[in-house]
Amino acid sequence: MYLLLTQSAHVIPSFAVGRTQELIYELNRVIDSDNEYRKDFENLKVYIDSPMATTATEVFRRNAQVFDEETKEYILKGDNPLDFKNLKFTRSSQDSMMLNANKEPKVIISASGMCEAGRIRHHLKHNLWRPESTILFVGYQAVNSLGRKIYDGAPTVKIFNETI
After folding, report:
1. What gap in Å lies between CA 77 and CA 49, rounded to an integer?
2. Contact predicate 110/49, CB 8 Å
3. For position 2, what pLDDT does the model report?
């Protein structure tokens, strides 16, 4: 797994509220654990490329009192479950564009979850065709959505009127 994570971009379409924060939480757990995959993520940057997901994460962070008991235990140990060393948030469209210009290995979590709108479409345009990239679906893909077409293995899709 380490070799795969160090070679390319890994694009994760995600819903901005709820699912993105679950992903941050789970990645934090891997990074803080003693399991075999920890080293795969220690130096890999994870970008949350969605202004809405960034704002939602800030709201979750400010309202820790509503978390479940397991999450409260993390917080009591001094660990913020919605943050880790290589987690970066992008708000500006310029920062978002730089993610596709920068060829360093990375994980990009971006909205929209079904790939119908938002910055995820730009990341798909720049990475979908690359055999070394991963597109990881973590949520439902409605019939006829761009996400579902990709998930079902369509050989080509249209993104911004361009065949990819």
Report:
1. 28
2. yes
3. 44
